[in-house]
Amino acid sequence: MMRFALIALSLTALAACNSEITSEIYDGEFGNSTMNNTQIQSGDISAQMALTSRFASEVPDTITFAFNSAVLDGAAQATLRRQADWIRQFPEVRFAVYGHTDLVGSNGYNQALGLRRAKAVVAFFASQGISRSRLEALVSYGKTQPVVLTDQPEQRNRRTVTQVSGFVNRHPSLLNGKYAAVIFREYVEGAVPPHPESDAIQTELNPGQ
């Protein structure tokens, strides 16, 4: 009888241990790791975020504008050339350009001004040999997302931001699920020969050279 009692006690203790272990391990998210891995491998998540982070860390993603202007000055063009060099080396990737303004003026006017700025950037990319088909629909946030909260003219608010927005549909290198190869491809700054327009502008800036 004692033997059966010990066996029953052991089984009860084992059941209690299993219950405690299960309550610590199971958090109601069983299968999420498998689901996330599948989504990552299929490019549904993380791939775009990884490339967005890379783009912002390797080239400046923002340019600024003069007050009430959508004209690209020399500094803006220099930054956009660096962006264009990066974009050309990742032909599988799509981009979006977001236009912003400062808080001076009406909502409607600033919405249109932000769009003109975004269009100016897209036109510049096209002049650098980048297909417009790789650029998502242009977006203007107008004055709704200021960097500096002031109702006075502020250059840091008058900007466009270029961001990775996704992947080119049915691009050959993505059909086999090679998102990792795209994300970790080496970007070599200056590997792409400068656009002829660069030489013309440099001559204008330094006519004696």
UniProtKB/TrEMBL annotation:
Domain OmpA-like: 52-168
Signal peptide feature range: 1-15
Pfam family, one: OmpA
GO CC term (a single one): cell outer membrane
Protein name as catalogued: OmpA family protein
PROSITE patterns: OMPA_2, PROKAR_LIPOPROTEIN
Native source organism of the sequence: Fertoeibacter niger
InterPro entries associated with the record: Bact_OuterMem_StrucFunc (IPR050330), OMP_bac (IPR006664), OmpA-like (IPR006665), OmpA-like_sf (IPR036737)
Keywords (A to Z) from UniProt: Cell outer membrane, Membrane, Signal
Cell location: Cell outer membrane
